[in-house]
Every structure is written in C-alpha cells, then in structure tokens.
C-alpha cells in the first residue's frame, strides 16, 4: 500500500515539473504577437511659424465719450433725444427758455446803435478840430474814437449776448449715441448740469491687462480677436494701438485694442481678447500628441509599428499646437489619438480613416 502511494507521488511530481518547464520555454514575442494592435491617428512634428495666443479680459469702451452739459441757467423747455438715439455732431438735443437771453441781445443791439452814432459824431467833430493830437495816425485816431464813444464795449456786449443766446440750444458735442439721460423737460437747470453722455458707438476700444511675462510678445499693430464674455456673437477684429509702459502692482500691463467695428459689442460690456503673437521657426506638435505621465509631458512616436515613449520639454500652447523645446526632432510621426493609456513599444496600427 505504501509503495503504491509513493510511486503515484513520484509520477505526479515529475509531471508537474515537465509542465512548468514547458510553460517557461514559451518566448515573450509570442505573447506580444497575440496582443491586438491599438488603432491610432498620427500627426507630424514640424518646424514652422507658431502663433502664441495671449488671452486677456477687459471692458469695451467708446473711443470718444463726452458729457453734454448746460452752460447757463434756465428752464429746459424741450428735450429732443432719448437714450440709444444716434445724433450728429452739432445737432440740437435740448432747448432752454431763451426769453432772458433774447432780451439781453436786444438791449445790446440798442446800445451798439447808440455807440455807433456817438462814434460817427466824434469823427465829424474831430475833423474840424485843430487841437487834436497830430502825433496819432489815422488808425490810432479811429481806435480812440471807437473807445471813447463806447462802440468797442458795445460790440463786445453784442457778441456776449449772441453767445448766451446760442447757449439756449444744447448741441451734441460729437456724433454718437445718447446714454445716461439725466434731465427731464421742464426742469430748472444751472450752468454745469449734465444732460447726457454721448458715446461714439462706431469707434470702440478695449483696455486689457496682460501678464508682464507675455508683454514682450505684444507689439503695436498686432491683430486680436474680441469675443463677448457671454460667448454669444461672432468675434470682432481688434488692433493693438498702445501699450502702457508701466507694470502695475499685480504684475500686469495695460494694452489698448481698437475695434474694427462694433458688431454686437456695446460700451460697458465685458469681453475677452485673444492677441496673436507669431513665433518663427519653432518645433511644434498637435496639442493632442502631448500626454502626461507622473506629471511629465510625453509624446509617442512610431517605430516599426510600435509606440515609442519620448519625454519632452514643452513651451507655449496656443490651443491647437504645443511648442516642443527638447526631447523630439522635426519630421517625426507622432500619435495623436488613443495615446493616453499607451505603453512603450506597444503595437499600433495607423488608422486611415
């Protein structure tokens, strides 16, 4: 009985040993051949011009905005505009009661005529007088008569009356749209009271703050795309017109953009600007080619239908392409899909779709 049990145990031991040995002798290439290749799409690493995109936000402003004010005291008898209305420069937007101004002008005219008569009388008298100073030439004598007769003062009084009369018509200082209307018809107003703001809605600009680390990439004349923060509406083209030479306490620099047109943007709106800063002869790859492993950027290339793992150093990112500073050469085929979980030397198949 014991001999039989011992014999069976020996047979089992040698059988297991042979099976284990057979499994160990199977080459690893066999398993690799059995793994199905991952279907991937590819791109190319290229030396090319690279548009670095600088994003910033700010408010839309009218390039010109002027407060229209009352220049004399009186009753506002007519208001000819409403908010949002477009006006031309010099267009009458409000009327003040002109009764007092008209009376002042008429009195000045009467005084002017009296002074003109006195002036003529003095000229006639002086022409027959022999005691008049012979040292004065004709122009000096005429100026003397005009002053002594009160004609000069009367002429100035008439001009002042005409100016005051003209001030009863409040005119638009610039062409634009009426905003912030503050007075109502029938109000008693004083000199200096504000009527409304006139905005040049056809001439808009935007002031944005740019990081000091990016300001070296911004130059006058560069183009930008302006978008409403709401995301609604098409982009508007803008141009960099000025760069403030001062960095503020937050490390930001103010840049002014002039908009080519208003579109759906209005003064006071929040907007986003994307300033394009072209960079020449940079090595770039499609953004999808860069994945991160343990916090480090990796780009997979293809060699003999296998994915090759490349640690890279990346630079600027414009949303479509990424600048590669080190770790990759130009004109290499790079994997841009199904590369998140890809392993080094994993078999791949390039998709033709």
TrEMBL record:
PROSITE patterns: PROKAR_LIPOPROTEIN. Residues 207-277 form the CusB-like beta-barrel domain. It comes from the Bacteria. One of its GO terms (molecular function) is efflux transmembrane transporter activity. Residues 73-199 form the Multidrug resistance protein MdtA-like barrel-sandwich hybrid domain. Residues 283-349 form the YknX-like C-terminal permuted SH3-like domain. InterPro entries: Beta-barrel_RND_2, MdtA-like_BSH, RND_pump_MFP, YknX-like_C. GO terms for cellular component: efflux pump complex. NCBIfam families: RND_mfp (TIGR01730). Belongs to the membrane fusion protein (MFP) (TC 8.A.1) family. This is Efflux transporter, RND family, MFP subunit. The lineage of its organism: Bacteria, Pseudomonadati, Bacteroidota, Cytophagia, Cytophagales.
């Amino acid at each position: 009985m014991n001999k039989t049990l011992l014999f069976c145990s020996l047979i089992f031991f040698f059988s297991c040993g042979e099976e284990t040995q057979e499994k160990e002798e199977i080459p690893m290439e066999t398993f690799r051949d059995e793994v199905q290749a991952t279907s991937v799409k590819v791109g190319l690493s290229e030396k090319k011009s690279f548009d670095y995109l600088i994003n910033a936000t700010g408010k839309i402003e009218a390039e010109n905005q002027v407060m229209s004010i009352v220049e004399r005291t009186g009753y506002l008898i007519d208001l000819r505009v409403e908010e949002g209305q477009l006006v031309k420069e010099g267009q009458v937007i409000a009327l003040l009661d002109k009764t007092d101004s008209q009376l002042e002008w008429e009195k000045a005219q009467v005084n002017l005529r009296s002074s003109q008569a006195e002036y003529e009388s003095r000229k006639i008298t002086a022409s027959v007088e022999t005691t008049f100073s012979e040292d004065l030439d004709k122009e000096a004598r005429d100026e003397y008569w005009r002053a002594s007769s009160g004609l000069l003062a009367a002429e100035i009084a008439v001009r002042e009356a005409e100016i005051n009369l003209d001030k009863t018509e409040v005119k638009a200082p610039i062409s634009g749209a009426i905003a912030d209307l503050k007075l109502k018809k029938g109000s008693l107003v004083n000199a200096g009271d504000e009527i409304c703001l006139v905005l040049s809605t056809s001439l808009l600009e935007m002031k944005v703050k740019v990081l000091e680390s990016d300001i070296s990439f911004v130059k006058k004349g560069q183009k930008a795309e302006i978008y409403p923060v709401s995301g609604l509406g098409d982009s508007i083209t803008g141009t960099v017109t000025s760069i403030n030479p001062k960095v503020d306490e937050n490390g930001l620099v103010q840049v002014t953009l002039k908009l080519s047109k208003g579109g759906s943007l209005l003064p006071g709106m929040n907007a986003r600007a994307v300033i394009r800063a072209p960079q020449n002869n940079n090595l770039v790859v499609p953004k999808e080619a860069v994945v991160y492993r343990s916090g480090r950027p990796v780009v997979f290339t293809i060699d003999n239908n296998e994915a090759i793992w490349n640690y890279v150093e990346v630079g600027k990112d414009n949303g479509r392409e990424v600048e590669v500073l080190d770790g990759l050469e130009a004109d290499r085929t790079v994997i841009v899909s199904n590369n998140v979980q890809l392993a080094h030397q994993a078999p791949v198949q390039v998709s033709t779709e």
